[in-house]
Design a protein that fits this description.
It is a single chain. This protein is of the alpha+beta class and 177 residues long. 38% of the residues lie in helices and 20% in strands. The chain has 4 helices and 7 strands, in the order αβαβααβββββ. Strands 1, 2, 3, 4, 5, 6 and 7 form a 7-stranded antiparallel beta sheet that branches. The longest helix is centred in the N-terminal third of the chain and has 52 residues. It is elongated.
């Protein structure tokens, strides 16, 4: 009758535990990044709604400079650019912010379908300044934008929502997340 385990059996068990721990760590990181992404999705939706309320009352959109001015570190920041025009639409997130936000004036006369056909160009071809822009039917007037480096790898993740229907979240570089 044998007692205990051989060294080979113990090593096999340790190897299997190590593999399981590696898989669990990878999945945890992925889910943690997905949870942090919710901040941008929620805040962009709120900004879009506030812009539509402002447009309904004043007949124009507000464009807002980046706030915070720089991409926050992965752990976030409570810094907020009080010089940005976000105060005109009543937007100010509370607590730690992991993204920076802007409302950019779109250049040109792209429709939403043209914007979706070339997402990178649509994202980059606009002006991020404090100001106002007129409403034009059928073309993208403003982009509500968010940028972050959630995993601190130097690659900036970018998302936006155009003002025109279907007003859905668009990932400029989804692979960064």
């Amino acid at each position: 009758m044998r007692r205990g385990f051989t060294i080979v059996e113990v090593l096999i068990v340790l190897l299997l535990l190590g593999i399981l721990a590696g898989i669990a760590g990878y999945n945890y990181k992925r889910y943690a990044l997905q949870a942090k992404r919710v901040e941008a999705l929620e805040n962009l939706g709120v900004i879009r709604k506030l812009e539509e309320v402002y447009r309904a009352e004043k007949g124009q959109y507000v464009t807002c400079y980046w706030s915070p001015e720089n991409v926050p570190p992965p752990q976030g920041t409570e810094d907020w650019n009080s010089n940005s025009y976000f105060y005109l639409i009543g937007f100010r997130p509370q607590g730690v912010i992991r993204y920076r936000y802007a409302v950019a004036k779109a250049n040109g006369s792209r429709t939403v379908s043209q914007c979706m056909a070339d997402v990178e160009a649509c994202y980059n071809d606009n002006v991020v300044v404090n100001g106002f822009t007129q409403v034009r039917d059928g073309v993208v007037d403003i982009l509500m934008k968010a940028e972050a480096d959630l995993d601190n790898d130097g690659n900036i993740g970018k998302v936006f929502i155009p003002d025109e229907p279907p007003q859905r979240i668009v990932y400029v570089n989804y692979t960064v997340y």
